[in-house]
């Protein structure tokens, strides 16, 4: 084992001091961030908090997958029923239009009977024009309601944003159609009753006159 000279020890000590003086700030600069003084009461992140964040993210991902699968399942069910829904709605609208046409034919026959058979004989209905005007108004309302229902179901599409809402709107619109049809029917019935009453009253009057003679 060699023995170091005193001068060599001094040189080594000097080099060590120089190294420490130079290397310390260099090593400090290699740290990602300077160490901040810790504030009293401040809590550092713990592994349990990180685990909770990961669990929450996993839960959100699971919910997202579930909602995606649920949406795909609803789409498949909707597509299977789409033809049935369209056929059913077309059938309902066809029935509505047939009812409108039927009421229109009956109204036309009553008006023809009144103008051709009763008026020439002097048999009149006082509010005839009002009754006929009411029929025209109610018919227009029924036709408009049916057209709106048809337009609503045309928006139905399983791949759309809200096919369920389109069906709900069609359901609500059909209630409007049914109400309009009932009012249209009533207006025609009102005309029939008025014409028949006037005709029967005139018939009784003629019979009474004949008996008196």
TrEMBL record:
Acidic residues compositional bias, start-end: 50-59
Instruction: Give the source's domain of life in one word.
Output: Bacteria
Give me the ranges of the annotated region Disordered: 37-64
The name this protein carries in UniProt is Uncharacterized protein
């Amino acid at each position: 084992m060699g023995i170091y000279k005193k001068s060599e020890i001094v040189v080594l000590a000097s080099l060590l001091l120089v190294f420490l003086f130079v290397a310390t700030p260099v090593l400090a600069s290699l740290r990602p961030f300077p160490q901040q003084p810790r504030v009293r009461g401040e809590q550092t992140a713990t592994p349990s908090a990180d685990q909770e964040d990961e669990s929450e993210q996993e839960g959100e991902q699971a919910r997202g997958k579930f909602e995606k699968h649920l949406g795909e399942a609803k789409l498949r069910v909707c597509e299977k029923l789409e033809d049935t829904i369209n056929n059913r709605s077309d059938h309902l609208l066809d029935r509505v239009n047939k009812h409108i046409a039927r009421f229109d034919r009956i109204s036309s026959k009553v008006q023809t009977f009144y103008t051709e058979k009763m008026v020439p004989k002097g048999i009149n209905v006082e509010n005839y024009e009002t009754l006929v005007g009411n029929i025209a108004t109610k018919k227009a309302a029924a036709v408009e309601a049916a057209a709106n229902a048809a337009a609503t179901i045309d928006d139905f599409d399983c791949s759309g944003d809200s096919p369920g809402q389109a069906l709900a709107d069609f359901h609500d619109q059909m209630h409007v159609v049914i109400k309009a049809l009932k009012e249209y029917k009533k207006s025609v019935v009102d005309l029939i009753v008025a014409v028949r009453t006037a005709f029967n009253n005139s018939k009784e009057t003629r019979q009474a006159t004949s008996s008196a003679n």
